[in-house]
Design a protein that fits this description.
Layout: E1 6-12, H1 17-20, H2 34-50, E2 55-58, H3 62-75, E3 79-81, H4 98-104, H5 106-113, H6 127-144, E4 149-154, H7 156-167, E5 184-190, E6 193-201
Parallel strand pairs: 1-4, 2-3, 2-4
Antiparallel strand pairs: 1-5, 5-6
Helix pairs in contact: 2-3, 4-5, 6-7
Amino acid sequence: MSIEPTRILAIRHGETAWNVDTRIQGHLDVDLNERGRWQAERLAASLAQRDAIHHIYCSDLSRAHNTAQAIAQLTGTPITLTPGLRERHFGLFQGKTFAEIEATWPEDSRRWKKRDPDWQPEGGESLVMVKDRIEQLLQELAQQHAGEQIALVAHGGVMDVLYRMATGQDLQAPRTWALTNTAVNRLLWTPQGLSLVGWADVSHLDEVSRDEAIT
């Protein structure tokens, strides 16, 4: 018996003040700023008009949860808080700006920027650990919702892993794709793997959103 494909809407949370400041959030619980709440409202209105969503899975961090709640309120879709969708844990880097990290930990900063797949900040996760976490979770959720469409509301690091999975990009390959706040990224899962349908749709926003590599 063949398993039907699962359609996936992968969505990064709305903007936060720390996104604006280029300050690493990781597992720290930073809420949406005013613009982020506006983005979530616009996203929700758009999805309510054009997409049937069977279930929403979201990171349990406020910036993702509140983005997901905006969608749920307009679509009536149930939400499941899913810690496995959290951003990469950045350990000692959390709460610091890019400039502060480079000044305080120059060697760690170099390895981070080079995307060393096995390097991890003290107390945090490596790229390999994040990839393994997301791949396992995606497999479980997609199999549960064969033939349906689900939304995954998470973080920039999660979106990056999903794009690489869908396109076969190596963990160390430089990022050339956008990870925009509240962008709608469309993926298709089958037992053979994940494929890209559409990426970085921000047609629901009137203004240009801030694109951050890391949140």
